[in-house]
Amino acid sequence: MRYETPATIEAAVGLIAAETGIARVLSGGTDLLVQLKAGMIEPDLVVDLKRIAATREITAEAGGFRIGSAVSAASLREHKALRAAWPGIIEGLKLIGSTQVQGRATLTGNLCNASPAADSVPCLVAAGASARIVGPSGKRDIPVQDVPAGPGRTNLAKGELVESIFIPAAAAHTGSCYLRFTPRTEMDIAVVSAGVSVTLDASGTCTAACIVLGAVAARVTIAEEAAKAIIGTKVDEAALAKMQAAASAAATPIDDKRGTKEFRIEVAGVLARRAVEKALERARGK
Amino acid sequence: MPLDAKPGMDFKVIGTRPVRPDGIDKVTGRARFGADFNMPGQLTGRVLRSPHAHARVKSIDVSQALKLQGVKAVVTRDDFNADAVDPALMDVLVNVMARDKVLYEGHAVAAVAAVDAPTARQALKLIKVDYEILPHVTDVEEAMKPSAPVLHADMFTDGVEPRPTKASNIASRVEFGHGDVEAGFQQADVIVEREFRTEAAHQGYIEPHAVVASMGADGYAEMWCCTQGHFMVRNISAHLNGVDVSKLRVTASEIGGGFGGKTTVFLEPVALALSRKANRPVKLVMTRDEVFRASGPTSSSYVKVKIGAKKDGTITGAYAELAYQGGAFRGSPVDMGAMCTYACYDLKNVQVVGYDVVVNRPKQAAYRAPGAPQAAFGVESVIDELAQKLGMDPIDLRLKNAARDGTKSSYGPTFGPNGLIQTLEAAKNHPNYKVKLGPHQGRGVAVGFWFNFGGQTAVSMNVNIDGSIALAVGTPDIGGSRASMGLMAAEELGIAYDKVRTIVADTASLGFNDVTEGSRVTFSSGLATVQAARDAIKKMCGRAAQMWGIPEDAVEWKDGHAHPAGANAGNFPPMSLADIAKDAGNTGGPIAGHCEVNAEGAGISFATHLVDVEVDPQTGRTQVLRYTVIQDAGKAIHPTYVEGQYQGGAAQGVGWALNEEYIYGKDGRLQNAGFLDYRIPVCSDLPMIDTVIIEVPNPGHPYGVRGVGETGIVPPLGAVGNAVSHACGHRMTVVPMSPPRSLKAIKG
Predict the structure, then answer these.
(1) What pLDDT score does B563 carry?
(2) Is residue B169 included in any domain, yes or no?
(3) Tell me: the pLDDT tens digits for B340-395?
């Protein structure tokens, strides 16, 4: 196995594009190293992006945030403006592994590991984030939800990698929240999760909402009917009940070692509702 | 001088809480655990394991692996001579290296030793095993059906008359009890009968199994490993390899948890075989995945309980039926489970029937009070339901029927002095029993029992030239026992605790010691330490007598000094232990105390647990709010480590009750072989566990010690089950009470 530490994104792309065997990108390594140690993968080439300066930067852009692919979750947690704009994304990051793991783990890595249970992804989707993909034929931006293709697989082409993630500005009176269900209090993986974003107008009517469910399908699920149930309402009890039912209806989980289908459908609605209630509280407080 | 008892039991050192000898090393990282040992020229070993739950091994071709550069040895079934193995150890041999069949996913079929780990891993891929896949069964109830695939063609249920002629997966039937249960049920005003199921739990020790074995060209070998019993490792590893016991010396490392799971061998005989073949030291370390798939979790179980009582709460009849799977070999702890089932109660009519069942799962190993928690879950749940039906406080119902001094136990013996009543009374008076509960909260009570054990024990105590003491015991320290031995030695000798250094000696340095199990160490190594100290004291009194020129029996030992026994003995100033030690070379040579004993008189230990939980009515998730352990320790030598045992047992029990379980797929493969999906509790899952130490002295120990390590895991399944049942408004009958199960119960 070769280990390379290129100094530029172009060099990194060149290396992985030229590799005839299995190439893997290393940022925090909190998934990759575990897979290596467990013998799940045996790559021929590992390209470490951390020596590329731009991958470790958070830059302001169009009122939002461009997050380099090797920025750690711990750095993001300490970024005041991001924390204020998108508390739901931060809540997701805070749940990844342990404090030590968060010192290494990255947003891009969590996205590209392509687990339907990834904690940072539902709220990224709810926030309307996009991924900047760079490859041999140049750069392109795609919505973050289109990066994973299914568990452990991405839509990236040969030689491509994610350079950065862009999180747009939050509109006025926007609240976000991420909640997950785990049997343990921490050091666990989501059995079901919900990341939501809710925007109100001055009168308290919901003008925009995005309700995203994790771990209930092969990829995150955008529960459009659930969002529609509260958009245009004052988000009263009736709207919330309708939203909860729609969120449950949007869930298409499987039975597995982490939970039953029946349980996940039920709890998807419960978490969506609890997350919306918390997001509303935040939107109203702004 | 009197050597039989400590006058008045007026302790000076016992009951204090000094730092343990291994404490600083463990918190600074200096302690050496199993995988920390390395030897010059050492090879890395890896084990090839069966991907199938049940298959015939038609052939094993290792030729390609042997051709790989860097591979120094490969061993298979052909490297062990089964004909020379004691039939009583045949299952152990078959478990460490499969013979004609693989009996569970993870069963070892071959092992390699190579110059490094990548080479060893590569070599495993080059071993070709031709399997004929057979139908499998992993569920205990399924395995008992006549249609189930049979694991062993020569297994005919023991304990059934006449002996069955058809082979089955039921290894044996056991029965305990007395009186007439049917007549008892006739007298009852209320009868509760229910079925319960518990899933298999793993001990969850943080340190995986690890061993380094090194056999020289002369056939003499050494071994370092993490184990609860290095004498057992020596005897079995030597025997399975056809080596004299004297040719193998085993040293136990520090141990990162065992809880019963390290009372047997897995890697050790294989490492010795590899080392012999490679003529180099070989190290084998399990991955966590291997620990789950190929070490020994506890049994899963089916438990049926039927109890009848009069309106005043008097139990008139109690029956139970247990079926425990022990993995692929006979020996589930159903016998001990059956003996413990009703041990907490004083019953006129009681009967317990148990079935030992084999399935295609790894061979079970002991787990803290093996067999008792599963049965207690059923009994304590039914007792709780009876209390509800009778409108009685659950502690009062237990007090009314509790075993006491003189109770004829359900499994035969008559109990001596014990602390069950005291633990129940302390529970009733505990502030945690009076806290008002909120919505969706529930309180559970349960009691538990464990026998405790004594066993073969050898201790050696050397009096050093400066008056300090080197105390060598042969029982690996899994819970602070070196500190307890040091305290008992210091107490008896009349010196300070820090003058005694206790070590766990290797197998060449002491007589045979049974494994650290059965909560036996503080009792039996403690008893032997006290006896060894008395032996040393007798010798030191002799030396003083010699120096004073008076008869030996005119010298007595008080407060760490030899004194003339009275005015008639002469007027000599007291001589300290250090004074006597300094002159040992002139008075007869080294001074040492010894004790070799098969310790009897281990005292039983009872506990009462209280727990409050809150269950989220929308997700079924249970949070433990407060937990209280009240247990009889006889005498707490080092109270902090007694409390630690109480808390540890409760913590493991809570994990088992709420989340821990072996989950098998239809393919017979374990689906959650890691700590992500096998969920032991993390710190934030538990409240601080409150403890109360009750001390009803055990007459079998000079200081009254009872073992305390195991009883603590017996009540939690029942206590948590009762609490969750009250919080949900539905009787929980399956462990673990995971969120999907609880939510289903709530939704009805």
Answers:
(1) 97
(2) no
(3) 999 999 999 999 999 999 999 999 999 999 999 999 999 999 999 999 999 999 99
Task: Establish if B207 belongs to a structural domain.
Answer: no
CB < 8 Å from A in window 260-289 of B? 287, 289
- Taking CA atoms, A82 is separated from A96, A145, A168, B722, in Å, by 17, 20, 10, 46
CA B357 centroid distance within chain = 21
| One domain for residues B435 and B561 | no
Quick one: three-class SS letters along B132-167? EECCCCCCHHHHHCCCCCCCCCCCCCECCCCCCCCC
> CB under 8 Å to B125, separation ≥6 — which residues?
none
- Structure tokens, B618: 């929308």
Please indicate, yes or no, whether residues B691 and B555 belong to a single structural domain of this protein. Answer: no
Instruction: Please indicate if any CB of chain B lies within 8 Å of the CB of A36.
Output: no
pLDDT tens-digit profile of B641-685? Answer: 999 999 999 999 999 999 999 999 999 999 999 999 999 999 999
Domain range enclosing A34: 1-48
Give the C-alpha separation, B644 to B656, whole Å. Answer: 18
- Whether A185 and B621 lie within 8 Å, measured CB to CB: no
Same domain, B48 and B98: yes
Pair B288, B673: CB distance under 8 Å:
yes
Please report residues of B whose CB lies closer than 8 A to that of A270: 618-619
Is the same domain home to B609 and B580?
no
pLDDT grade for A209, boundaries at 50, 70 and 90 = very high
In this complex, the residue of A183, A186, A189 whose CB is nearest that of residue B739 is A183
- Searching chain A, which residue's CA lies closest to the CA of residue B118? A39
Domain of residue B513 covers 7-31+454-599
Asked if residues A182 and A208 have their Cβ atoms less than 8 Å apart, the reply is no
Domain co-membership, B713 together with B590 = no
- Model ipTM value: 0.95
Query: Residue B52 is part of a domain; what is its CATH number?
Result: 3.90.1170.50
Neighbouring-strand partners of residue B309: B190, B315
Alpha helices in B267-331 (DSSP H): 268-278, 288-294
CB–CB contact A191 B738 (8 Å): no
Contacts of B676 in chain A (CB under 8 A): 188-189
- Number of Cβ within a 10 Å radius of residue A22: 12
Residue B1: pLDDT over 50: no
Whether A184 and B621 lie within 8 Å, measured CB to CB: no
Among the partner-chain residues A186, A257, A262, the one whose CB lies closest to the CB of B672 is A257
Residues B87 and B66 reside in one and the same domain = yes
Q: Do A263 and B621 touch (CB under 8 A)?
A: no
C-alpha distance from residue B695 to each of A4, B408, B647 (Å): 65, 22, 17
CATH code, A270? 3.30.390.50
Cross-chain residue pair B684–A183, CB shorter than 8 Å: no
Residues in chain A, overall count: 286
Specify whether B75 is located in the same domain as B50: yes
Which positions 641-680 of B are in contact with A (Cβ < 8 Å)? 658-659, 663, 671-672, 676-677, 679
